[in-house]
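Quick one: structure for this chain?
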Amino acid sequence: MFKNTHAPFAITVALLLAIPSFGAAAQVAPAELAQKSGCMACHGLVHKQVGPGFAQIAERYRKDSDAAERLAGKILNGSVGTWGRVIMPRQSQVSPAQAQALAQWVLSQPSPR
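Got it. Here's what it folds into:
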């Protein structure tokens, strides 16, 4: 009879390959990601610092159904002129999925008071 001596090895490899997918599921909360990515160095939660506050951004784009995709693009590629002469540098340390999560989080901020 044929004895499969590779089965334990195959199971171990399969388990090790599955571990990164568990790590990807346990993603960082967008607020923490904004802090770790340096967003808070230029943006306040409510009011302008160097760039507009997140609540100001959310207010401007509240009725724009395409805003999340556009903002994710600005996070990834940078922009200039949207809020005056302020330059938003591209954020190369942020993945497209993280940019999308950040954009949706920014747009979920309550109106500035």
